[in-house]
Design goal:
Strand content: 25-35%
Largest sheet: 8 strands, antiparallel
Bound molecules: magnesium ion
Amino acid sequence: MRNQFLTLVLLLTAVFAWAQDESMEMKPEMTEIWDPEVPIITPGESPSDAPSDAIVLFDGVDLGREWTNADGKEPGWLVEDGCVTVVTGEGMIKTKRVFNDFQLHIEWRTPAEVKGESQGRGNSGIFLQELYEVQVLDNYNNRTYRNGQAGSLYKQHAPLVNACKPPGVWQVYDILYTAPRFKDDGTYFTPPTVTVLHNGVLVQNHVKLRGPTEYIGIPEYSVVPHGAKSLVLQDHGNPVSYRNIWIREL
Ligand code: MG
């Protein structure tokens, strides 16, 4: 601590002396940083298209390359017409790869034929690191509890606005996720943080999670230290579809 203080005093003295010396007047280039050069990538044709440094998790055709069922077998969801649809009873699907911090693009569609209400209409979900659910739900003219509707971090953060499109219409989530870091005692040193854009609209602004998503009870009680984990899509008994899924590790 004492050494750090001395270093700071010396540094400030040097800067002060330098600032007094008119021959050392600051020039624009003195605050320019050139190296290393920022990595060059090729952006997608539109913001929905995968940039060159993304991992394409689903291209509309081959689901089994990147995804499995929960039991590790071939994913049992229906791949058709460039999208993949929940097959009730098959259970969740998860990525073979595991991730820490990332940017995720994923498109989803609730069934055009409206059935059920509240949580029973077009329910699915995207579990970040298998534990933290961004809710997928048809909330177009369908009220439910605010912290459980589309764009919510389920039971923890309601979305800022309801940006839902009608059932049967494709919608987009762009999700920025920072994984938690853990203390030695197993609690969060920094909690997971999430930003969500729903159809281009900010609905979660760098929110902090208290713990893994819980249907019943208080989330922080179930925190268990973890490293990189899969992305999971939820089978909630409704034929919700997904397409154009890509991720950039950060
Ligand atoms: Mg859900």
